[in-house]
Specification:
single chain; 186 residues; mainly alpha; Serine Threonine Protein Phosphatase 5, Tetratricopeptide repeat; 2 domains; TPR-like_helical_dom_sf; Tetratricopeptide repeat protein
Length: 186
């Protein structure tokens, strides 16, 4: 299965999304009990805007990897657009599994997801706190600085948003999304 999975991910990285989708769907059909297969398919479905299908495969992956916080982060990431309630359950399970640990390598990603979920249910201040924690932990985290800056700007905190973007650009020089957002702020 590893070689098939690697091939599908390579095809996806090359931008051949439909082909990657077909390869991953075939992989899931061949290995329905493999969490990795479901969790590789789910983000490709997200990219195709098929959020409910992505959430279904995230659920199948999470069920098969219930004691693996790293795979649960992937499940939560893929699920949150199509099933935010499930994403919260996976994040809660990650907390259960890693609460005793002095650190968890993907903690910033967990806080980022929790912040996005909080924002989606209008818990704005909670969302900003969680996004700020994620950003402080990993300023180079994909999307974290942008999401925090957008949240701050929407709350009327333009100067703070600009400072976040400046710091994010230091961590991710040349990031077009960050540069574009920064150009919109004074």
């Amino acid at each position: 299965m590893d070689a098939e999975l690697e091939r599908a991910l390579t095809v996806h990285a090359e931008g051949r999304d439909e082909e990657a989708l077909a390869l991953l769907q075939a992989l899931v059909a061949q290995h329905p009990d493999a969490a990795e297969a479901h969790l590789a398919l789910a983000p490709v479905l997200v990219g195709a805007g098929r959020f409910e299908e992505a959430a279904a495969h995230a659920r199948l992956g999470a069920e098969r990897a219930w004691n693996d916080p790293y795979l649960l982060v992937r499940a939560a990431t893929a699920a949150w657009h199509g099933d935010p309630t499930a994403a919260k359950v996976y994040l809660g399970r990650i907390d259960e599994l890693t609460g005793w640990a002095p650190s968890f390598a993907l903690q910033a990603q967990v806080w980022h997801l929790k912040g996005l979920l909080a924002w989606s249910v209008d818990e704005r201040e909670t969302a900003v706190e969680l996004l700020a924690r994620a950003f402080a932990e990993d300023p180079a985290g994909l999307g974290t600085g942008a999401d925090l800056a957008i949240a701050l700007a929407e709350l009327g905190r333009g100067a703070q948003a600009a400072a976040v973007l400046d710091r994010a650009l230091e961590a991710r020089p040349g990031d077009r999304r960050l540069a574009g957002l920064r150009s919109e702020l004074p």
